[in-house]
Amino acid sequence: KAGVTQTPRYLIKTRGQQVTLSCSPISGHRSVSWYQQTPGQGLQFLFEYFSETQRNKGNFPGRFSGRQFSNSRSEMNVSTLELGDSALYLCASSLTTAGNTEAFFGQGTRLTVV
Amino acid sequence: AQSVTQLDSQVPVFEEAPVELRCNYSSSVSVYLFWYVQYPNQGLQLLLKYLSGSTLVKGINGFEAEFNKSQTSFHLRKPSVHISDTAEYFCAVSDPGGSNYKLTFGKGTLLTVNP
């Protein structure tokens, strides 16, 4: 079965712009989580959605937002981009929100802010 | 709050040698434990997980890990590594009692297997 699909794979944006990243989970998975990966901070949790509701949010400014659609596809948006937002953004889907469920990760979107 | 410490940021080894990647966690509650691997320009792939039961967990690609509650550790081992094992490895925890899904990751250990 198809894995988690993230689009686009690479993105270059200018400071001050906004960006939208997309994630299509594995069919049947209803939970989608987003993580930011940088060399300095490692992997940091952004937020998690389940059944179109944000269930949990990490410690990121309000410029970072997301949503989930009825088909479980998710988007995250970053407004007023800063140089420090350059990172690999990873999306993970899981069947449920239980802590023992396996998270399947996409290949990520590499965002470069110049 | 939970935290994960991976004690080595880089581990160089020779092919066919054994390797151990160390992971310690801190949590006020019991946790589920995971090891993920990330190859260059790829997402994360689950190697193995500890949920309950036997403290020795076997995963894919010949990796295994041992959960030690008293030492709050979950070290990853492989008896004989291959060049293809070169990748970054992440230890992670999740909260069994949580009503939402969140993984807390360590900073990662870059395993480099040399010929």
Biggest pleated sheet of chain A: 7 strands, mixed
The parts of chain B where pLDDT drops under 50 for at least 5 residues are none
Please summarize the sheet with the most strands of chain B.
Answer: 6 strands, mixed
Q: How helical, in percent, are the residues of chain A?
A: under 10%
Multimeric organization: heterodimer
Order of helices and strands of chain A: EEEEEEEEEEE
Average of per-residue pLDDT values of chain A: 94
Structural class of chain A: mainly beta
Q: What class would the helix/strand composition of chain B place it in?
A: mainly beta
Strand percentage of chain A lies at: over 45%
Please report the number of helical segments of chain B: 0
Runs of chain A in which pLDDT lies below 50 for 5 or more consecutive residues are: none
Return the average pLDDT of chain B rounded to an integer: 92
N-to-C order of helices and strands of chain B: EEEEEEEEEEEE
Task: Give a written overview of the molecule.
The complex is a heterodimer of chains A (114) and B (115). By secondary structure, chain A is mainly beta. In chain A, 0% of the residues lie in helices and 53% in strands. In chain A, the strands form 2 sheets. In chain A, strands 2, 4, 5, 6, 9, 10 and 11 form a 7-stranded mixed β-sheet that branches. A 4-stranded antiparallel β-sheet of chain A has the order 1-3-8-7, with no helix packed on it. In chain A, strand 7 and strand 8 form a beta hairpin. The radius of gyration of chain A is 13 Å and the shape is globular. Chain B has 115 residues and is mostly beta strands. Chain B contains no helices and 12 strands. Chain B has strands spanning 3-6, 10-14, 19-21, 23-26, 32-38, 44-50, 56-58, 64-68, 73-78, 87-94, 104-105, 109-114. In chain B, strand 8 (64-68) and strand 9 form a beta hairpin. Chain B starts with a strand and ends with a strand. At the A-B interface, strand 4, strand 5, strand 9 and strand 10 of A face strand 6 and strand 11 of B.
